Input
Amino acid sequence: MNRRVIIFGFLLGVGFFTSSQLSAQTEPAQAETTYTAPAGAAAPVAPPVRKGSPLDHLTNDPKLATPTVGYKEGNVGTPDYWIAHRFIDDMGGCAWGWVKKKGDDWDSAKWVALRENPGVAVAPYRKLISHDADNNWEYKFWGSFAPYKAYDPHLDEMVPVFILEGYEVIGPKDPLNIQAGPPDRVRHRPSGASSRSSRPILTDPGVD
Amino acid sequence: MTIPLMRFFVTLISFLILGTMAASAQSSEDIVLTGAPALRFLEHGKAASHDFYWFNFVDASVIRLKELRDQAKPDELVTWAVYRPGYVARSHELEMDLLPQIEAKAKQLGANLFWFDTKEELINYLNKGRDRDKIKITSFDYFGHSNKACFLFDYSNTIDTMSIAFLHVRDLKKIDSDDFSKHAICKSWGCHSGEMYSQWWKSHFDIPMIGAIGKTDFSHGGEPVLSNSDGKWTQ
Output
């Protein structure tokens, strides 16, 4: 009887020991929930901006109060251009404005994000003192729609992308009587996904 | 001790030894996911201008990778997933090729470098890049731009203040929850993840993800720190 008890106890001990070893092997070490930053060294200094580069122009060229009517930039001149209406989104979105085919109604216009092409053509407001100084100005745009959409993290929405190849300044126009934003913009409640606002959290961010 | 009892004992020990060996054959993987910096052209002149330093996310990732490498068991994989197009674009702007520098850092760390160009490539790696029946993800860290609903691999890198490459909370359902060990330790070092992303992560994977309430600051070049006075880590 005593021998059986000893053997049973021994097997139990072996099993316990082995299972602890197994557990120790399969469970990862607990990581610290906070990490102590090492003494930070200064970040490397960027190489000097090359003279004539897009960043050099952006940084050093004189800025204008408003666009210059008739000014052209990039690849322009072909007859297949678009009409673009700049509009600052009063909901805080970062899209550029509307773009429509020339000759079409504004009802058919798309609310777009602008993919600039540094060195060829960039957003007209890059030449202005204030980025919103061309609100409600219109342009001829040359370029095309991208096969993808952009995510606006301020409003948690997807926006068509227009790839800009060139533009010509038409001039200031009356505000359009259409609502800013993509057709599926959530208008009855704030987005909540923005990293730069204190809007409440959405239960459904509304992005596919 | 009788012979049948000895046989039983030997058999039991053999099973235990074989079980232990089988368990040790199961490997694990630590994954560090790194997004790209903005372009200076697109951030120029903004009051809150991002990413003066092009390797802010990379340096922070390297610190974490070193920690993981130091803690790793011999058969543990350490993988560094980096969003390539963003570094290509920043290289072009800087007129300095950053990709070989990242590759050299990965080699020095002994980390497996996985370049990805799209969200789909990343998801495919998480699901099928390893035999997930045998190799579970035991730690996951994200360094990059984010809002509460998204990891933004690209932010202000292609389009001003927007993203064309991201992992939205709605994309999490495309990642198999079995990819992760049930004890996996996950953390997003990006801004605001603790305000929404962590909850969706926990809901989908049934494992917590530490995330920030408020913003995080990568600008000093080391590991990011909470930058809001009322900021905190949560999960």
